[in-house]
Design goal:
Strand content: 15-25%
Oligomer: single chain
Structural class: alpha/beta
Order of helices and strands: HHHEEEHHEEEHEHH
Number of strands: 7
Helix content: 25-40%
């Protein structure tokens, strides 16, 4: 990991613990360091790492997420790259970009920057996801799983990934005795590779988020969504300087 320090040091904003962030990235399977993806101008990992990395050693200062004002704030822990294991040992288990815990709640965060407007979406679920382990409280997500197998419902939203994350999140939340929340936190870039992103694409992405939210409403895993800018506009006091640094670095 030390070989990467000279270059990766350019990634981190003031006040973000490079040591803690690199430790988290090293243990995750995303290969952000070795692949050089963290240094890419379009790096989504760099946005999440800089956003949540600032709070790793000051979780109580994490601003409340829009739509989740009713939770038992403040946060007691903030983590990067947290694995949410399924209720079996073999196979691959989901990793969320960040996780926030309050005394009673586990919030898993899936962060997006350019991915909704770049990557082709797929809806592949192995037979393992059909195991009778999720419970009746997860029926909205199991119905979404089955619908995604039948047809591609979304062009911009990676709904299959969110369903898998919800299954991992509910398992982890049950294990530690907390209420699970899945937060979809997304950027809305004005351009990509020097070309403007049409406003209709951004609005269609938001419409897909709303449609997904409606379909999984009432599940044991509560689903919420916010744009980065919507959340950042609530930052004041000690977080105000970091807010401006994030906006300037990532054109938020």
């Amino acid at each position: 990991m030390t070989d990467n320090l000279p270059e990766t040091s350019k990634v981190f904003l003031e006040g973000v613990s490079q040591e803690l962030c690199l430790a988290a990235l090293t243990k995750s399977p995303g290969n952000e360091l070795a692949s050089g993806k963290l240094l890419s101008p379009e790096s989504s990992a760099a946005l999440a790492v800089n956003t949540f990395g600032w709070f790793l050693n000051r979780p109580h200062e994490l601003p409340v997420f829009p739509g989740l004002l009713d939770l038992d704030w403040p946060a007691v822990t903030v983590a990067l790259e947290r694995q949410m294991r399924f209720p079996w040992s073999a196979g691959r288990h989901p990793w969320l970009d960040a996780a926030v815990e309050t005394k009673k709640t586990l919030i898993g965060i899936e962060s997006k920057r350019f991915e909704p407007f770049r990557d082709a979406k797929s809806s592949n679920f192995s037979p393992a996801y059909d195991r009778d382990v999720w419970g009746t409280g997860m029926e909205p997500f199991t119905r979404m799983r089955d619908s995604l197998r039948a047809t591609q419902l979304f062009s911009y939203l990676d709904a299959a990934q969110l369903v898998k994350h919800a299954f991992g999140l509910v398992t982890e939340a049950r294990r530690i005795g907390k209420r699970p929340v899945l937060l979809y936190l997304f950027a809305e870039p004005g351009e990509r590779m020097g070309r403007p992103l049409p406003d209709n694409i951004l609005s269609e992405h938001r419409a897909e988020i709303a449609r997904f939210s409606q379909h999984v409403s009432g599940a044991e895993v509560r689903f919420a969504a916010s744009s980065y800018r919507q959340w950042l506009d609530t930052w004041h006091g000690p977080t105000a300087h970091h807010r401006l640094a994030l906006i300037n670095r990532f054109a938020l």
